[in-house]
Write a structure and sequence with these properties.
The chain is of the alpha/beta class. The protein folds into 2 domains: 6-75 and 175-255, Periplasmic binding protein-like II (D-Maltodextrin-Binding Protein, domain 2), CATH 3.40.190.10; 83-171, D-Maltodextrin-Binding Protein, domain 2, CATH 3.40.190.10. The protein has helices at residues 16-24, 39-47, 58-63, 104-118, 131-137, 146-149, 163-171, 189-203, 206-217, 221-231, 238-255, and strands at 6-10, 33-37, 53-57, 67-76, 83-87, 96-99, 123-126, 140-144, 159-162, 175-182, 233-235. The strands form 2 sheets. It has a 6-stranded mixed beta sheet. A 5-stranded mixed beta sheet has the order 7-6-8-5-9, with helices on both faces. Strand 6 (96-99), helix 4 and strand 7 (123-126) form a beta-alpha-beta unit. The longest helix has 18 residues, at 238-255.
Length: 265
């Protein structure tokens, strides 16, 4: 391993509070070598040995048989705002689904909800995140991450389902999208505490984050703040991990994912 663990972090807005301390707190800056990519690319770098630790979609943590650092991650306890299933037809009639493959957990979540809630298993194919273009080729599309913040679900001429909210309504459990993942030998208390400290630093500097990130992401400060403080949950507890285990169980039925031993909090 390199002198400093190589950390693959997600370039979406929802990761900013998690890594704010690593970027701005002098006491934390030298702990990791942090690099930013899409969630799916983080997973690729971990699989290829190009990163030692990654904020991975939970489905990829399972597929790669990795462990995770407890206490921090990306989750929701209701509508998440940035995972939108948009459809031209009633959900039960979706036969084709165009997806933005930036997050593999979100793609699998769409498949799980459509199967469990609406009894359909559409053909899924990848396209660049553009709602109108995607809907010329498919019955429905999945828009995730920052591109979803540029869509107002109340003002589009299509059905729109927030998959975070739908998961919570369907299961009564939180939805965990990503966790800091690594091989078991790297799950050390000093790194767990570093991830928690970086998040604490971010949460106490939310005004700075909102002020900086709003123009970068091209969304209002009001929406940026609401997203990071009302929609996304960063501090995870046993209830969140119960939701994660339920999600992986349902994903296994659809995808025959090989789960790691002892997926626990």
């Amino acid at each position: 391993m390199h002198p400093k663990p190589r950390v693959a972090a997600v370039s979406y807005l929802n990761t900013v509070p998690l890594v704010w301390g690593f970027q701005h707190d002098p006491a934390l800056r030298e702990v990791f070598d942090v690099r930013f990519e899409l969630p799916s690319v983080c997973a690729q770098h971990m699989a290829a040995g190009q990163a030692d630790i990654g904020i991975l979609p939970v489905i990829e943590t399972a597929r790669q048989k990795l462990d995770y650092f407890p206490g921090t991650g990306i989750a929701c306890h209701g509508p998440v705002r940035t995972i939108l299933l948009i459809s031209k037809v009633p959900y039960a009639q979706i036969q084709t689904l165009a997806v933005d493959t930036g997050s593999r957990t979100s793609v699998m979540l769409s498949r799980v909800i459509l199967a469990e809630r609406f009894g359909c298993t559409p053909k899924v194919f990848a396209r660049r995140a553009n709602m109108e273009v995607m809907l010329t080729e498919a019955d429905a599309c999945l828009i995730i991450g920052d591109p979803a913040l540029h869509i107002d679900p109340e003002n589009i001429p299509y059905l729109c389902l927030d998959l975070g909210g739908e998961w919570v309504n369907m299961t009564g459990l939180p939805m965990v999208f990503a966790v800091w993942s690594a091989r078991k030998e790297l799950i050390q208390d000093k790194y767990t505490e570093a991830f928690k400290a970086s998040l604490r630093y971010g949460l106490t500097h939310m005004d700075d984050i909102v002020r900086q990130q709003s123009p970068i992401r091209g969304v209002s400060e009001e929406l940026t703040r609401a997203y990071l403080t009302r929609h996304i949950v960063f501090e995870l507890n046993e209830k969140d991990y119960e939701g994660m285990r339920r999600y992986l169980d349902l994903a296994l039925r659809l995808d025959r994912v090989s789960l790691p031993g002892g997926v626990t909090a």
